[in-house]
Amino acid sequence: MKNLVDWFHWIPRLLCIAAILFVSMFALDAFAPGLTLLEQLRDFLIHLIPSFILLLLLLFAWLREKWGGILLCAFGLITTPFVFMLNYHRTGSFWVGIGIVFMITVPFIMVGVLFLVSNYLKKRSNTSK
Hints:
Blueprint: H1 2-25, H2 37-47, H3 49-63, H4 65-91, H5 94-104, H6 106-127
């Protein structure tokens, strides 16, 4: 049982870090020709605001798994319609919108669920002692 608890302790944390890095990668489009270095850095930092928010959520989830898992699930669920509609209006394709939702918001819902499972397994293993 201890091995399973250890796995579920680290899997959501590592997956969340990977998902945040994936989202952060989209901020690189702020570097465009024709802008000064200062304008590019400003735009880059603005594009990283969602990543900073997600890092704060990860830090909170790291300290308080139950509430952090709930917040990560809520973040994913709340942002899903916005991400879908934004991409649907840009591309006009339902399937592209769904695909982008599965790449951007669903990982955070899954990580939130994994934090909740980790919290449950830790409480169960502590009560069985």
